[in-house]
């Protein structure tokens, strides 16, 4: 094939060489058009015959070379078929392109790219071809150049300039092939994240604006956190905007991060934007109670308050450890200027309804992972404190039985308090009541002489509401004073009357001062009055249980003293005969005592001597004479009537009579 004047021609040559004589050569065509022929002879190569055929005019024609020579028995021929040209199609060389349903090539470019080359691949056997391209049936935009089969974008790719439908036509004379290229410029979105608080929620907005094509917006949240999300889509001048919104609780017990993920063809990898929500301040919960009285009944009001950020806390009441909730409560919510919320809830009930139980205020709020409880104990209603006691009045001989009760109740309610007394009760009762706040203190007294109820029980009865009664009993002790004892050494002086009291005799030392007589009162009385006086009625100085003689003792202090211990109607006395001992009397008493002791010793020795003599003379029968002599020696001088008769035979009885005597020594002592 040769080109001449911009056209292509086929040159078909028939060549014969080495024969003698020359070979006749001619060409035949099966086409109607007569070709241009050319014959030539070359001594070296032989004979040839050529024809020049326009390539497009003789597509598919058969050209036959016929050779005739004397040596040939018949002519020889050689044939060749000229090729037919075709253009079967055009496609893009770029691997990123795709074909849509209408057969158009889709090619995506990124905005801002430069020196982007779009290659066309032509399928066919044409020797050459021409390529023309248009954009949206118009010329190619500035910055895009067609060189051969390549479209080159020199400047940065712009969506407004370069995006569109391109048509490229490949032609060779009458042959044509067309390709449609839909170039889309990927414009990355402008990403914006915004956070607001509305209606008790955190509103996070993630926008991917002015993108081509539209971006895809999704959310990633921490494990265990969920939110309500939605998206909306808008378009303008070929660009698209997507706004993704997610609602999260305005308050969280811990810090959390929400991530907005944007997918777009312009991104090699998805892009994300994160926003961190701090944890909320803890809810401030307080609980308190108060009581009031109405018609004698006590009522309790418990208030529970919770201050927090929005939304408002939810308050629920529970009684005890059960799931029983109190639905009858008064609640209110206040939104403050700084956006915080204060929730209040109150319950009002009869105190006896939940007495002794726990009342729980449960607060639920997003700032806490679990509900928080505040518990207050409703005190058990104690029974009125009933007490009884006995009081010895200082300025009266009467005793006082006191019954008192303290109870919490409203004003204007009477107290049913009474004494249950023995039949012989003749005392006087009185009732006194006073309020201290909501406490009513009642005091019922009974005044009586001790002798009237000694050893008996006095009972106080309190009547509660609903017929319940409570009793307290106080026992009146039975007292006695059995005796008054003298602790000094004394000797009894018997009265000639057998039933008369014993008189205790003791001796005080003459001319000595500050001498004392010690006494002791026996009995169960808590206290007593003790006094002593002389027979003439003069009182003696007392110090506790002691009679005191501060001055020197003289004969004037001699005499009978009477001491009396008394407790109300109980009394006991003791009589003391006081003797006064001088020093001369004491010396004579000591001498007499010594003489008595000496005589006693002599008598004992004489008896011993007599016994020995009697044993030695028993065989000589001198018992009677010896016994008479001894008896006469033992008798004191006096009248003959006091002499004892002689003892006869019975040795043991006589011996016993001789030993049956007593020696009495009366020694007087002083204090």
TrEMBL record:
<dbReference type="GO" id="GO:0016020">
    <property type="term" value="C:membrane"/>
</dbReference>
<keyword id="KW-0130">Cell adhesion</keyword>
<dbReference type="Pfam" id="PF08205">
    <property type="entry name" value="C2-set_2"/>
</dbReference>
<keyword id="KW-0812">Transmembrane</keyword>
<comment type="similarity">
    <text>Belongs to the nectin family.</text>
</comment>
<keyword id="KW-0732">Signal</keyword>
<feature type="region of interest" description="Disordered">
    <location>
        <begin position="623"/>
        <end position="646"/>
    </location>
</feature>
<feature type="domain" description="Ig-like">
    <location>
        <begin position="278"/>
        <end position="377"/>
    </location>
</feature>
<keyword id="KW-1015">Disulfide bond</keyword>
<keyword id="KW-0472">Membrane</keyword>
<dbReference type="InterPro" id="IPR007110">
    <property type="entry name" value="Ig-like_dom"/>
</dbReference>
<dbReference type="GO" id="GO:0007156">
    <property type="term" value="P:homophilic cell adhesion via plasma membrane adhesion molecules"/>
</dbReference>
<keyword id="KW-0677">Repeat</keyword>
<keyword id="KW-0325">Glycoprotein</keyword>
<dbReference type="GO" id="GO:0005912">
    <property type="term" value="C:adherens junction"/>
</dbReference>
<dbReference type="GO" id="GO:0007157">
    <property type="term" value="P:heterophilic cell-cell adhesion via plasma membrane cell adhesion molecules"/>
</dbReference>
<dbReference type="InterPro" id="IPR051427">
    <property type="entry name" value="Nectin/Nectin-like"/>
</dbReference>
<keyword id="KW-1133">Transmembrane helix</keyword>
<protein>
    <submittedName>
        <fullName>Synaptoproteinsis syg-2-like isoform X2</fullName>
    </submittedName>
</protein>
<feature type="transmembrane region" description="Helical">
    <location>
        <begin position="586"/>
        <end position="613"/>
    </location>
</feature>
<dbReference type="InterPro" id="IPR013162">
    <property type="entry name" value="CD80_C2-set"/>
</dbReference>
């Amino acid at each position: 094939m040769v080109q001449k004047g911009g056209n292509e021609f086929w040159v078909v040559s028939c060549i014969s060489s080495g024969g003698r004589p020359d070979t006749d050569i001619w060409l035949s065509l099966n086409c109607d058009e007569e070709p241009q022929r050319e014959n030539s002879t070359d001594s070296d190569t032989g004979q040839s015959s050529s024809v020049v055929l326009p390539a497009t005019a003789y597509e598919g024609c058969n050209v036959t070379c016929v050779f005739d020579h004397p040596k040939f028995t018949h002519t020889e021929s050689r044939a060749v078929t000229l090729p037919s040209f075709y253009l079967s199609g055009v496609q893009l060389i770029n691997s990123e392109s795709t074909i849509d349903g209408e057969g158009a090539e889709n090619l995506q470019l990124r905005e801002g790219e430069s020196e982007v080359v779009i290659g066309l691949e032509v399928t066919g056997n044409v020797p050459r071809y021409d390529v023309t391209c248009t954009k949206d049936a118009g010329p190619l935009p500035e910055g895009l150049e067609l060189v051969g089969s390549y479209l080159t974008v020199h400047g940065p790719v712009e969506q407004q300039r370069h995006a569109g439908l391109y048509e490229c036509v490949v032609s060779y004379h009458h042959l044509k092939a067309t390709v449609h290229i839909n170039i889309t410029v990927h414009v990355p979105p402008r990403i914006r994240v915004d956070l607001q608080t509305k209606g008790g929620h955190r509103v996070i907005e993630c926008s991917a604006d002015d993108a081509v094509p539209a971006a895809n917006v999704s959310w990633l949240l921490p494990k265990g956190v969920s939110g309500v999300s939605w998206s909306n889509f808008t378009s303008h001048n070929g660009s698209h905007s997507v706004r993704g919104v997610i609602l999260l609780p305005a308050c969280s017990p811990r810090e959390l991060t929400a991530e907005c993920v944007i997918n777009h063809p312009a991104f090699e990898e998805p892009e994300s934007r994160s926003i961190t929500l701090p944890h909320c301040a803890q809810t401030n919960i307080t609980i308190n109670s108060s009581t009031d009285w109405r018609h004698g009944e006590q009522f309790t009001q418990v208030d529970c308050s919770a201050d927090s950020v929005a939304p408002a806390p939810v308050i629920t009441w529970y009684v005890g450890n059960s799931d029983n909730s109190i639905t009858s409560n008064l609640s209110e919510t206040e939104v403050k200027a700084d956006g915080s919320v204060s929730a209040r809830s109150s319950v009002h009930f009869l105190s006896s309804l939940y007495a002794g139980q726990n009342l729980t205020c449960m607060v639920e709020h997003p700032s806490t992972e679990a509900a928080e409880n505040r518990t207050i104990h409703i005190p058990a209603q104690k029974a009125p404190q009933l007490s009884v006691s006995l009081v010895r009045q200082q300025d009266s001989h009467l005793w006082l039985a006191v019954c008192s009760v303290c109870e919490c109740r409203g004003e204007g309610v009477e107290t049913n308090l009474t004494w249950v007394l023995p039949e012989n009760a003749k005392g006087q009762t009185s009732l006194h009541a006073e309020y201290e706040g909501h406490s009513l203190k009642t005091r019922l007294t009974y005044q009586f002489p001790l002798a009237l109820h000694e050893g008996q029980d006095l009972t106080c009865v309190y009547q509660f509401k609903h017929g319940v009664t409570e009793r307290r009993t106080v026992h009146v002790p039975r007292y006695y004073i059995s005796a008054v004892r003298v602790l000094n050494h004394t000797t009894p002086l018997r009265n000639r009357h057998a039933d008369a009291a014993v008189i205790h005799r003791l001796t005080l030392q003459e001319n000595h001062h500050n001498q004392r007589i010690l006494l002791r009162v026996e009995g169960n009385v808590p206290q007593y009055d003790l006094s002593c006086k002389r027979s003439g009625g003069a009182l003696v100085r007392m110090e506790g249980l002691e009679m005191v003689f501060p001055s020197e003792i003289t004969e004037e202090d001699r005499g009978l003293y009477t001491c009396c211990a008394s407790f109300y109607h109980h009394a006991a006395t003791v009589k003391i005969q006081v003797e006064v001992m001088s020093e001369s009397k004491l010396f004579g008493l000591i001498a007499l005592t010594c003489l008595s002791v000496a005589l006693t010793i002599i008598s004992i020795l004489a008896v011993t001597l007599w016994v020995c003599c009697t044993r030695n003379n028993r065989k000589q029968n001198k018992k009677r004479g010896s016994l008479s002599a001894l008896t006469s020696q033992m008798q004191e001088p006096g009248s003959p009537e006091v002499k004892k008769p002689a003892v006869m035979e019975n040795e043991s009885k006589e011996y016993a009579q001789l030993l049956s005597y007593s020696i009495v020594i009366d020694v007087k002592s002083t204090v």
